[in-house]
Amino acid sequence: PGFAEDAAPQSVAEARERAADCRACPLWEPATQTVFGKGPDDAPVIFVGEQPGDQEDIAGEPFVGPAGKVFDQALAAAGIDRSQAYVTNAVKHFKFEPRGKRRIHAKPNTGEIRICRWWLDQERALIAPKLIVALGATAAQAVLGKSVTIKATRSKLIDLDDRTQLLVTVHPSYILRLPDQAAKDRETQAFQADMALVLETVPELA
Ligand code: URA
Ligand code: SF4
Questions:
Q1: Residue ranges around ligand 2 (CB below 6 Å)
Q2: Residues 58-107: pLDDT tens digits?
Q3: Which atom of ligand 2 is nearest to the CA of 31?
Q4: CA–CA gap between residue 48 and residue 29 (Å, rounded)
Q5: Cα separation, 30 vs 18, whole angstroms
Q6: What CATH number is associated with residue 168?
Q7: 195 is in which domain, residue-wise?
């Protein structure tokens, strides 16, 4: 199923309502609910993650679990008020593999990213932000429509169109997964520096 013939939603609220019933790819079925973006529909910045995690799937809101905590700390360190930004994900259902009672995060594939991109495109068109911040390679792939490396794209302002620039950085979960504290500290610093660049680019976020 595709979205090609579907009329574009006229508001973020309409998009959110319609996405709640989306069945365009198989990820909706085992998940609890669609986790749509959250924030003002005239936000100057859209942060894009990968997909909701276990806690987001249950809460119905993006970045409220462990990765959300890393994200919140980096925003706070940079002096960014999260409530001024719109926060969403490239893929809007939680993909997981059951392991006993636990649900283990599984990476969305290229097809799922491409299909769910329709929703991200609607959010982008309706919000028309000055800046999109891609948190990780999946988000960057969803925004750019092609796969890129973090190494090649990180910390640079990339023009998407007349109004909107893109900044690619790491995903907060990447920092969580680092094995040793020195690497964690170093990457936390680098992530905070990227958030400082976000604030420098869009001072309204303070
Ligand atoms: N990781 C993401 O990419 N998004 C979330 O909302 C939570 C964790
Ligand atoms: Fe629809 Fe995206 Fe959910 Fe797939 S992951 S069912 S495309 S909202």
A1: 19, 22-25, 27-28, 34, 91-93, 115-116, 119
A2: 999 999 999 999 999 999 999 999 999 999 999 999 999 999 999 999 99
A3: 3
A4: 23
A5: 19
A6: 3.40.470.10
A7: 12-205
